[in-house]
Amino acid sequence: MTSVDRNQLLFDRAKLLIPGGVNSPVRAFRAVGGTPRFVQRAQGAYFWDANGQRYIDYIGSWGPMILGHGHPAVVEAVQKAVLEGFSYGAPTEREVELAEEIIKLVPSIDMVRLVSSGTEAGMSAIRLARGATGRKKIIKFEGCYHGHADALLVKAGSGLATFGNPTSAGVPPEVVQHTIVLEYNNVEQLEAAFVEHGPEVACLMIEPIAGNMNFVRASVPFMKRCRELCTQHGALLAFDEVMTGFRVALGGAQSVYAKLIPGFEPDMTVMGKVIGGGMPLAAFGAKRAVMEQLAPLGGVYQAGTLSGNPVATACGLATLREIQKPGFYENLSATTRSLVDGLTAAAHAEGVTMCGDSQGGMFGFFLFDELPQNYAKVMTTDGPTFNQLFHGLLDRGVYIAPALYEAGFVSAAHTAQDIADTVAAAREVFKGLPR
Ligand code: KE4
């Protein structure tokens, strides 16, 4: 470590110019304390900070970097694309190719619209669901994050199936009055909400594996009832697969649930992260009858200057082609599972209570003896202990999410040695944790 901490110098400069010194709040380390690492460059499973310190990266831009940083095929595709032009504001063949790939890999959708962020995709999907059904109400679940569109910045009210309260200043109560917030995995609340509001519900939006409360799976009975009740009441079941799409499996979380619930599929899918390969690109899709409600065909307006950007689509296409190669998910799943198993075994060897779970290249672990099923439980995690674990790993060159409610991500570039080094570092940290 150099005597001058360039991360701190940069953070001090940034804080004068950018709120909190960051362009997205979680990057500020406010939940864990300390100085954010300013990334100079990244390659494969690693990045190097402003002091030249190397870290094994388990964030990977919060999911997009499934191949690892700087995959040669992706770099080549982007270099070629930029030489052809950065942006046209006109249709391109590559948008058609990317739409074909997405629709091929996500059989529940007939059509797709490309946008520039997961927030934009989720916001547009909600508007489309309301326009297509002529209904106002939406159901979401506490602990699920679908981007920062006003109608989705709500937390559960008190009591059963009450309407949400804004989680953000600047969101008037009127804007969230049609948003019902329920407890994840709570079938009783779900049933009650549909009894009371079923005919008014435009859509139910859910993270099928909730990465915004670390790693919580929707139980099969719960997911089955989401599907049945949406069908019964004519509401659209919208899967927010911005994080899980192409991350937990080639077909996303919906392909995992289709194996557990015969014939299961959502009505709408929101995607992002992996499909852009690290460039600003997201998407939402549904059956043709729903998607054709969108402008310029239908009355639901949605637009974007950089939607389907030619450089971003080149990056996304190259990424989607690589993840379709034989054995990609088998290898990625095995590496990720070896991380979770290694960490929990090391924790238990040091008398630390820990459990974990993973699906494909996404993982989570908890300082509990059993996996939590909802947000309220996740948030009972002992913060100071997590923060000690976070900084202990960081000091040893291992970069996990700087918040206990965030998932982790493994790339195809992470090696068995990286996992072994991570587990060894964690074991040292576990020795110092409170029992
Ligand atoms: P963006 O607008 O950040 O591209 O996507 C919003 C979004 C929508 N849906 C899900 C399931 C998501 O996880 C996200 C964004 N995820 C966060 C990580 N929890 C991005 C990191 C950040 O906010 O800086």
Task: Provide the descriptors you would attach to this structure in a database record.
14 helices, binds ligand KE4, 38% helix, 16% strand, alpha/beta, Aspartate Aminotransferase, domain 2, 435 residues, 4-stranded mixed beta sheet, 7-stranded mixed beta sheet
Helix content class? 25-40%
Largest sheet: 7 strands, mixed
Overall mean pLDDT: 96
CATH topology of the largest domain: Aspartate Aminotransferase, domain 2
Please tally the helical runs, counting DSSP H or I stretches of 4 or more residues: 14
What's the CATH H-level homologous superfamily of the largest domain?
Type I PLP-dependent aspartate aminotransferase-like (Major domain)
Low-confidence stretches: none
The class by helix and strand makeup works out as: alpha/beta
Unique bound compounds: ligand KE4
* Overall spatial form: globular
**First CA to last CA: what distance?**
31 Å
CATH hierarchy, class of the largest domain: Alpha Beta
Tally of DSSP β-strands: 18
Number of domains: 3
Q: Please state the CA-atom Rg, rounded to the nearest Å.
A: 21 Å
Strand order of the largest sheet: 4-14-13-12-9-5-8
Based on the structure given, which CATH architecture of the largest domain is correct? 3-Layer(aba) Sandwich
Estimated share of beta-strand residues:
15-25%
